[in-house]
Request: fold
Amino acid sequence: MARPALGLVIVGLGASLAPLDIAVNVALPAITGHFRLALADVQWLVICYVLVYGSLMLVAGKLGDLFGHRLVFQIGLAISAVGCAACAAAPDWPLFLWARAVQGIGTALALACTPALATSLFPESERTKALAGFASSMALAAAVGPFLGGVLVELWGWPAVYWVRVPIALAALALSVLLPSPKLEARPFDAPGALLLAATMSSLLLSLVFSQRREIPGLWSLALFAVSLGLLLAYVRRANRVAEPIIRPSLFADPRFTIPNILNVLANLAGFSILLLTPYYLVNVLKLTALGTGIVLAMAFAGSLMGAPLSAFLVKRIGQRPTVFAGVACVGLGLLPLGFTDLQTPVLVVAALLVLEGIGQGLLTVAYTDIVTATLPTRDRGVAGSLSLLTRTIGIVAGASVLTALHARGAEGIWNMAGFLAGYRFAFVTAGGGLLVALLLSCLWPRVWSTR
Reply:
């Protein structure tokens, strides 16, 4: 593209629709009151969205490889605009949930192709630079999301957090005609394999979601997990027989490919503790206002904004794999000390640790995505980008379950400030320390982190 920076802005604008969904968290109390819901029911708002886009992510990336990343990106933006408008205008709760599912389809189609579109704008020698720009746009949108949500809900009510994304989607759609659309070779689409893979991911994600809900028997979660394993085996058998599978299972036989994927899942699982637990610590323990809490939490995303370009710099100097190692280490070293904070901990110390964790996420995201992109063939850039986004999603969904259980284990049934702090410390020490232990164990395969 003649002006790749402009193309990156267009891609980032379309990709921002996903992290801007954080604004919905701010609107949850208003949505609960509007539809007269029980607190447990509002979780389906998240489930319908995450389950759909997480299940379709790899398939959407493959569709981009076969039919054009720009075309699939455009279709996704159009569906996202319709889904957001339908959410804002939904007259009742069931229709609202259907609209959230439509929004999830749009997110999967648009988001899965954005890393591939970003790298197509630049020469191959500047691939990491493109990925750093893309990661920065995602981090910026995530940082803006909570503030934007608070302002919109205050001024115009909860539907505004959906209405605001309609013009963003339409603007990105209108500008997307400027993005390149190279001619592609004809290749078959493995529809049965796509169905198997989507069913595998949906049953896996749903099993993780059900494991968080006390009203659902644990046997259901285990049964769904078993179903996901059975579907995965069926997909592997089919993928080994067809010429053009969605993704080749043989890729995961190489520890140099599999271990970075696993650590990206674990780093996002551990890092989700900040969004899940730290707001309660800031409000209830340090007694910060809502604005102060938002500013402190934004430090993690500010760290990601710094870490993304730093990752591109380090990849050029020391290589992808040492940069991924450094990123995971920074995430763990940022989270572990948060487990030792208390009522006397200065806010600046908490903010500094969040910045360190964010820098680690920025380092990891860019360098890890570069590894996946470099490993898969050039013609499968959509699958590569969607895989990097999918492992992040799996980590976040799993984190909601694991971290909630860790907090409950640490609190030991004490329902007061002391119990909360005990659970908070246990969750962060286990998450941060466990991530560092996993990183050390990965060194048993020394070639995983070597540049050769």
User: Anything to note?
Assistant: The CA atoms of residues 179 and 394 lie 30 Å apart. The mean pLDDT is 86.
